[in-house]
Design a protein that fits this description.
Elements: H1 12-17, H2 23-30, H3 32-40, E1 53-54, E2 62-63, E3 68-69, H4 71-84, E4 88-93, E5 99-103, H5 104-120, E6 128-132, H6 137-149, E7 152-155, H7 162-172, E8 176-180, E9 182-185, E10 188-191, H8 193-200, E11 212-216, E12 232-234, E13 251-252, E14 256-261, E15 271-275, H9 277-290, E16 299-302, H10 309-321, E17 325-329, H11 340-348, E18 352-355, H12 357-366, H13 369-372, E19 381-384, H14 391-401, E20 408-410, E21 445-448, E22 460-465, E23 475-476, H15 480-488, E24 497-505, E25 511-516, E26 521-523, E27 526-528, H16 530-538, E28 543-553, E29 557-566, H17 573-587, E30 596-599, H18 613-620, H19 636-644
Parallel strand pairs: 4-17, 6-7, 6-8, 8-11, 11-12, 16-17, 16-18, 18-19, 19-20, 29-30
Antiparallel strand pairs: 1-2, 3-13, 4-5, 9-10, 14-15, 15-23, 21-22, 22-24, 24-25, 26-27, 28-29
Helix pairs in contact: 2-3, 4-5, 4-6, 4-10, 5-6, 7-8, 9-10, 12-14
The structure holds adenosine-5'-triphosphate (ATP) and magnesium ion.
Length: 645
């Protein structure tokens, strides 16, 4: 934004103890392969690698391909072997108020039992296993047991419908589905296993790949839980009865670790493939440096669900590879009330809290009296991910949650990138609210125009990743061509990965991600980013959230249409709308003033909490809605349409 933006340098105390340092940037730039090899050597390799990147079959990369390792051993056993078995790995907090702590030793036993049982039913390296579970410890145990055996897991968010589950199970060809009998919603049990039964079908319609369904008892709510003899087994009768001793085997660095479907914000979800050695290297490296993690002192909490990549990398693989102690919370932020997260931070002394802008805006709407009622002084670092964070929300997070003391890491990355790509380094970078600042050491990114020319500071263009990185996706499951078309065709000549997002370097060299390029608007020849107009609207004190789209406009090409949620209901919408338009004119330019501002009760979001602008565009342009399969609540559109009528 403007050069008057306040900059937040790290405090001298933070700098003095930081894991990261300025020299990492030049070291990585001078010899990226050696830099990444050094990071990879922080892991335990059964067979050390001698090679780094192989890009000869671009865009299909391999990293450390002649090395062998076991991902689960790296996340669990090696900490036990190093005498840290009594350290808590997971403080699990159940939705209805139950809780459970798992030390690294206990985790090792549990993962070993699951691995022994999975092997006993004939699963072999390379087989796929679908995991459709709420946030219970067994979900993480199941993921790690898959990793231990070289199985490829695909976690499907438990809020998805049975149809969405079936599509993913079929696409992945999963042999086993792991689920729970039910899940808690606001303290009440709700069915889950029945959704699996519906998804898997029967007779002619039965999912062809699935041989077994393993059911963890969670809610115990249904004495007549439907059961398919021969297919269904209880976890407690099988896994829990298996031996806690399991001899792990090492796998190739390129052994597929998981496939995960993208959130579907921009279209139908893609099955992203990640492998082992490079992915774990980048997950562990970013966790250590971007979260400044200190073992035996920090209590980390990533609030994502394991159904998203954020949960994979920063609940499971990144923290556990570093021997961290972390919170895993099963429920929503407002059950039983809006104090839930703050109670957890206080009770466990959380030091590092990583969440999404959508939740921060929700906290703002609830009001600062909620966090102010708690002692949050254990916090020392905050993070955000998922969408651009509006500067207003950033400052609120910094002040109200972080007590003007905690660095904020705004982390830009994707399901496809595997781990953080753009982010400040805490203790090194002076942050500008709303900017992800720049590529991490070892990562290379550019902002370019249509022809791939690098743009000067101040001009917005396409965000590209011009060098391969260890955690990069290795493909789209079963669809070689879609992988090439989706990510590598826009800048095929240069061989760059195009992320789909627009960005700009500002005059001080800070990198701003401006949202999807499909969302960049063209108003009378001016390119205006939806993210910036949204941030200007959110800066108005009455506005809680805003979504902006460019709708076809006969005179200007595109007209800016905004949908806003108010902090609290007001009778004078007209006056507010005038003020909001003025706010945009002042913050950005009169050209960016929305043509139309709709005050609505809700915004359409994906299950991972992102605003689905493409559907709002369908509404504004009077079309039928596109793919809504990952939308939380389709009924929001009735309310939105009635506001516009
Ligand atoms: P699909 O690819 O199916 O449309 P999706 O892109 O929402 O879904 P994810 O991989 O979960 O799926 O999200 C990655 C995207 O989220 C990025 O491309 C970017 O648009 C957005 N994003 C993530 N973190 C940030 C951030 N810190 N700042 C700005 N945008 C972010
Ligand atoms: Mg995407």
């Amino acid at each position: 934004m403007s050069s008057t933006d306040q900059v937040y340098p790290p405090s001298p105390e933070f700098v003095a103890q930081a894991n990261a340092n300025e020299a990492m940037y030049s070291r990585a730039a001078n010899d990226p392969e050696e830099f990444w090899a050094e990071q990879a050597r922080r892991l335990d390799w059964a067979v050390p690698f001698t090679r780094g990147l192989d890009w000869s079959d671009a865009p299909f990369a391999t990293w450390f391909a002649d090395g062998k390792l076991n991902v689960a051993v790296n996340c669990v056993d090696r900490h036990v072997d190093a005498g840290k078995g009594d350290r808590v790995a997971i403080h699990w907090v159940g939705e209805p108020g139950d809780s459970r702590d798992l030390t690294y030793s206990q985790l090792k036993d549990e993962v070993s039992r699951a691995a022994n049982y999975f092997a006993s039913i004939g699963l072999v390296a390379g087989d796929r296993v679908a995991i459709y579970m709420p946030m219970v410890p067994e979900a993480i145990i199941a993921m790690l047991a898959c990793a231990r055996l070289g199985l490829t897991h695909t976690v499907v968010f438990a809020g998805f419908s049975s149809a969405a589950l079936r599509a993913r199970v079929d696409d992945a060809g999963a042999k086993v589905v792991i689920t729970t009998d039910g899940q808690f919603r606001r303290g009440e049990p709700a069915p889950l296993k029945t959704a699996v039964d519906e998804a898997l079908g029967s007779g002619d319609d039965a999912a062809p790949s699935v041989e077994k369904v393993i059911v963890v008892r969670r809610t115990n709510h249904d004495p007549d839980l439907p059961w398919v003899a021969g297919r269904d087994v209880w976890w407690e009768d099988t896994v829990a009865e298996a031996s806690p001793v399991h001899e792990p085997e090492a796998f190739d660095a390129e052994q597929p670790l998981f496939l995960l479907y993208t959130s579907g914000t921009t279209g139908s979800p893609k099955g992203i493939v990640h492998t082992s050695g490079g992915y774990l290297t980048q997950a562990a490296y970013t966790f250590h440096n971007v979260f400044d993690h200190k073992e035996a002192r920090d209590v980390f909490w990533c609030t994502a669900d394991i159904g998203w990549v954020t949960g994979h990398t920063y609940i499971v693989y990144g923290p556990l590879a570093n021997g961290a102690t972390e919170i895993v919370y099963e429920g929503t932020p407002n059950s039983p009330d809006e104090h839930r997260h703050f109670n957890i931070i206080e009770k466990y002394g959380v030091t590092t809290y990583y969440t999404a802008p959508t939740l921060i805006r929700t906290f703002m709407k609830w009001g600062r009296q909620v966090p102010d009622a708690h002692d949050l002084t254990s916090l020392r670092l905050l993070g955000t991910v998922g969408e651009p964070i509006n500067p207003e929300a950033w400052r609120w997070y910094y002040d109200v949650i972080g007590g003007n003391r905690c660095p904020i890491v705004d982390t830009w990355w994707q399901t496809e990138t595997g781990a953080h790509m753009l982010a400040p380094l805490p203790g090194v970078t002076a942050c500008v609210p709303g900017s992800a600042m720049g590529p991490l050491p070892g990562i290379s990114a550019k902002v370019v125009d249509d022809n791939g020319n690098e743009l000067p500071q101040g001009e917005q263009g396409y965000l590209v990743l011009d060098k391969p990185w260890p955690g990069m996706l290795r493909g789209i499951w079963g669809d070689r061509q879609r992988f090439i078309d989706t990510y590598w065709s826009r800048f095929a000549e240069q061989g760059w990965y195009f992320a789909g997002d627009g960005a700009r370097y500002d005059e001080n060299g800070a990198l701003w991600v401006l949202g999807r390029v499909d969302d960049v608007m063209n108003v009378s020849g001016h390119r205006i980013s939806t993210a910036e107009v949204e941030s200007a609207l959110v800066a108005h004190p009455a506005v809680a959230e805003a979504a902006v789209i460019g709708a076809a406009d006969e005179t200007t090409g595109q007209g800016i249409v905004a949908f806003v949620i108010l902090m609290e209901e007001s009778d004078d919408h007209d006056a507010l709308i005038t003020q909001m338009r003025d706010q945009v004119a002042v913050d950005i330019s009169p050209i960016a003033k929305p043509r139309e501002i709709n005050i609505v009760p809700e915004l359409p979001k994906t299950r991972s909490g992102k605003i689905m602008r493409r559907l709002l565009k369908d509404v504004a342009e009077g079309r039928e809605l596109g793919d809504t399969s990952t939308l939380v609540d389709p009924s929001v559109f009735e309310a939105i349409r009635s506001q516009r009528a």
